[in-house]
Amino acid sequence: MERLIDWETELGRVDSIKIFLKNHPKSAVLKKLTSDMDALIAKGDNAAKTEIKELLKKAETRRKEIEYKEGLERLKKIKAGIKSGSSVPFSTNISIDDLRALKGDKLPPTLGHLDTAIEKYKKGHYYGSATKKHAAEIEATMRELFQKHDLGMHIEDDLLEKVFNTHFKNTFETGSSGGYSGPSLNADGSIKQSHLRLSAAHKLFDLGSTEKANQLNISQYEKYGNLLDHDKLREATTHNRATQYGNVAVRFKKDKVTCTWTAGDSLSERYQPSLVTDPKAVSYDDMYESKLPVKGTQTNDMTKFRSDNISSYLELQFHGDVTVDCVESLTFPYDLTEKTKSKYLGFAQKWKSIGTEVFYIKNGKLEKL
Questions:
Q1: Cα distance between residue 69 and residue 234, in whole Å
Q2: According to the model, what pLDDT value does residue 44 have?
Q3: Residue 317 phi/psi, 5° resolution?
Q4: Other CB atoms within 10 A of residue 17 CB
C-alpha cells in the first residue's frame, strides 16, 4: 500500500512539472526530462520508477532555477513602483509570482506550489460548469469583498494572554482543531498521518506525501481564520458559525499577513485555496450553484453575503508567521468594564499597550477601550 502511495506521489510531482512546462514551453531541458519521464512511466517497472526519482530531482531543480530568474525580473518591476522598505498596499493585485519575487526564500513553504495546485484542481470534478462559466464575475466580486472587509479569526478570550506572549499557532502546535480530535504528534515529533488537517494541507497546497520525511516543520503549516465584516458592531451582534472557534474577533493588518481563502471549510477539500489578493473562482464550487457571487452581488454587508452566497463562514488560511505585531484590533462580544470581566480587561489593556485597538459591546453599542 505504501509503495502505491509513493508511486502516486511521484506521478503527482510529474504532473506538477508538466503544468509548469505548459507555462514555460521554451525550456528545452524540462521538455527533454518530461519526455524521458513519460517513457519511464509507460514502462512502469521498478527500475523505471527508480530512474523517475532521479529525473524528478533534476526537473524540480531546473524549475527552481527558472522561478528564481523570473522572480528577479518581477522584483525589479514591483520595486520600481514601491518605495524601499514600505509595505505593499493590499489593493495591489499581488499574484503568487509577485509574492515569490517579493519574499524570495522567505515565501511560506505552504505557498510554494499554490499555482500548480490551482491548475490541478481545475482538472478535477469539483470545479463545476457553473463556476467556470461565471469565473470572471466571481473573481471580480471576491476582489471587491476582500478590499472592503477584514482578514481575521476568532479565538477564546482565555487564550489572549498566551498569544500575547508567543504568537498565533496552528492546529498542530496547539493539538486542537474543529476537524480532528486526538493528539497531533507522534513520539518523534512528526505529525500523525491520520490527522485530517495534514492530508488536507498537503493536497490543497500540493505539498506531496504526508510521510514524515516530507512534512514541514509544524510551525510552518497554515493557520485558520475567516473574513470578518468591517462593521464591527454588525459582526459582533449577528450570527457567524466561526465563533465556535472563539468569542473574540481578531482583525489583522492587511499588509502584514499573507492569506488564502475558500468559500467554506477547506477540510472537505471541495474548494481550492487562492490568494485573497488574487482570488480565483476555484475557491468556490458548484455546491453553491445558486449562491455564486456573480455580477451584481452586494459586497457591503459581509453578514448578508454569508447568508446569501455561502453556507457558513468564508475561511481564510494564514501563511507564515502571524505575530502580535500583525494585529490591528480585538473586539470582545461583552462589556469589558463589568467586574466579572476584570481578568479579560487586564488582557485587553496589555494588547492596547502595544498599539492594538480594543473594542467591546456594551448595551448593544460598540465601545472603544
A1: 47
A2: 78
A3: -120, 120
A4: 20
Q: How far apart are CA 182 and CA 223, in angstroms?
A: 18
pLDDT tier for residue 347 given thresholds of 50, 70 and 90: very high
pLDDT-derived band at 78, boundaries 50, 70, 90: low
Phi, psi of 357 (to 5 degrees): -75, 135
Contacts (Cβ under 8 Å, ≥6 apart) of 252: 150, 151, 152, 225, 318, 322, 326, 327, 328
Q: What is the pTM of this model?
A: 0.78
Residue 201: HSE in the Cβ half-sphere, 13 Å Cα cutoff: 29
Buried (b) or exposed (e) across 346-362, using 16+ Cβ within 10 A?
A: ebbeebeeeebebbbbe
Instruction: Write the pLDDT tens digit of every residue in 285-341.
Output: 766 667 888 888 999 999 999 989 987 899 999 999 999 999 999 999 999 999 999
Strand runs (DSSP E) across 110-164, as ranges? 150-155
Residues 6+ apart with CB under 8 A from 16: 113, 116, 120, 206
Distance CA 222, CA 171 (A): 9
What is the reported pLDDT for 21? 83
Rounded Cα distance, 158 and 216, in Å: 29
DSSP 189-231: SPBPTT-HHHHHHHHHTT----SGGGPPPGGGS-EEEEEEPSS
3-class secondary structure for 23-91?
A: HCCCCHHHHHHHHHHHHHHHHCCHHHHHHHHHHHHHHHHHHHHHHHHHHHHHHHHHHHCCCCCCCCCCC
Q: Read off the C-alpha cell for 344.
A: 479579560
- Alpha carbon distance 307, 18 (integer Å): 40
CA distance 193 to 180: 12
In terms of residues, how long is the chain?
Answer: 369
